[in-house]
Specification:
The protein has 329 residues and is α+β, with helices and mostly antiparallel strands. Helices cover 32% and strands 21% of the residues. The strands form four sheets. A seven-stranded antiparallel beta sheet has the order 1-9-6-11-4-3-2. Strands 5-10-7-8 form a four-stranded antiparallel beta sheet, with no helix packed on it. Strands 12-13 form a two-stranded antiparallel sheet. A hairpin with an 8-residue loop joins strand 12 and strand 13. The protein binds 2-oxoglutaric acid and fe (ii) ion. The site of fe (ii) ion has 5 residues, from loops. Belongs to the iron/ascorbate-dependent oxidoreductase family.
Amino acid sequence: MDDEEEEFIPPPPPPGPPPLLREDQLLHLARQGWLFLELPDALSQSMTDLLRHSSQYFDAPDIEKKELYPSKLGTEFGYYPIAEEKEYITLRCRIHTDPNAKAKPAAKLAASLEASTVDAWHHAGVLLWRILCDIARASDLDVSVWNDILDGTLDMPDSEDQLTYALMRLFRYFPSTGHAEEHTDLGLLTLCIGDGTGLQVLDRFNSDQKPAWVDGPVGTHTATVLVGQTLRALSARTMTAGAHRVVGNSQGRQSVVFALRHSTRHDVDFSLFGGEGKLHPTELWKTIQAGKVNINTEKEKRDAQRARFRTTRPGAEAEALEHATRGQG
Ligand SMILES: O=C(O)CCC(=O)C(=O)O
Ligand SMILES: [Fe+2]
């Protein structure tokens, strides 16, 4: 008889980052399209720093804010004020790198704003990547399905020629009148934190008679994670895009929104997700954006977008009502 013991070979560790969400959290995110999530200390700290720098930036004179970050690409880049509602800045890559000692105070302000954005972007990117890996594992997909889609998105790009669709957006809502209409975001996942009440998410399962809005968490310890339209599309609509809005609050509110969106570097291969075909990243973006109203543009433009949408797509109103508006996620 062979008494030699069989050598024990431990199973290889699961690929990718360690799991983050519990099963019930993952299910909640998939079904509702949103989840309140306690943040790791490092991320919470960098969000606190970013809110502080963002506050310094918004306190600067309008002319300075515009000069530092002129808006372009519609609402997709730079400083954008909306009268009586809010002002916000969209950061998609580094603009003002470390200034020398003689630099103007405004340039120093921008450089430190960006330094804290780089930090928050990195930590938020890792967190959302871990959630995407949890989603892949729960769907029996390899975590590598995200490699091309996330290429260049998990850290803030160093320069404009490395832009992806991902962004960090900093908001200041005016007291009482500051708001954002109901919408779903466009990207994969969005992470929102705010220093006051106002963000509300829709409880789809209790909204039969009238919409049941749930207040999002306040402060930098807990975030709201939202599923966006791109992730919904990749999941063959098994995941819901989370409907949300911002309502006015008498104190006003500042928020940080990190929108993880797909990379511009590779075609998006739906077959990796059990679907069919490949789409150029720009084509995917256009498809996702089609027929959506940008809730972060001026009110007149939003109304015009709605009117155009109604006349060019008769009968689309019911669908438009479901996902009529979009934010930046
Ligand atoms: O300010 C926030 O917390 C969220 C804003 C938002 O949803 C959006 O602009 O898409
Ligand atoms: Fe949003």
